[in-house]
């Protein structure tokens, strides 16, 4: 396995969890799948539709999202919104992310001093 392939594999693992946090954060306001893909992409989260849609269904089955169909426009769209439990999970995950970021920053600073 080349270094590029190894890096790509680790980056994919790292991004997998961050997409959950990002999706729960964005969906505090109702949104549908394609708009979420665009919002995440604009923020720097490159995620494929075939990854995002199953994730949305999984988060809904876990009780972290609710969904409803909007049929007011020509094309019906399924809108997702975080539940109170989803908001709490997102807040906890963002807190843990901040804690881990600080720990890695501290480790990096310690290693540079040696």
From TrEMBL:
Family matches, as Gene3D superfamilies: Winged helix-like DNA-binding domain superfamily/Winged helix DNA-binding domain (1.10.10.10)
InterPro entries (alphabetical): Metal_resp_DNA-bind_regulator, Tscrpt_reg_PadR_N, WH-like_DNA-bd_sf, WH_DNA-bd_sf
Parts forming coiled coils: none
Pfam family name, one: PadR
Domain Transcription regulator PadR N-terminal: 26-88
SUPFAM superfamilies: Winged helix' DNA-binding domain
PANTHER family to which the protein is assigned, alphabetical: PADR-FAMILY TRANSCRIPTIONAL REGULATOR, TRANSCRIPTIONAL REGULATOR RV3488
Name of the protein described by the UniProt record: PadR family transcriptional regulator
Organism: Paractinoplanes brasiliensis
């Amino acid at each position: 396995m080349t270094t590029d392939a190894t890096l790509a594999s680790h980056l994919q693992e790292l991004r997998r969890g961050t997409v959950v946090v990002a999706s729960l954060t964005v969906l505090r306001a109702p949104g549908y799948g394609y708009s979420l893909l665009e919002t995440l992409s604009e923020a720097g989260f490159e995620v494929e539709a075939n990854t995002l849609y199953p994730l949305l269904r999984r988060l809904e089955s876990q009780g972290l999202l609710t969904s409803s169909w909007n049929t007011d426009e020509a094309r019906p769209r399924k809108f997702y919104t975080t539940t109170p439990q989803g908001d709490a999970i997102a807040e906890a995950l963002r807190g843990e992310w901040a804690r881990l970021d600080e720990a890695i920053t501290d480790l990096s600073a310690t290693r540079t001093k040696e």
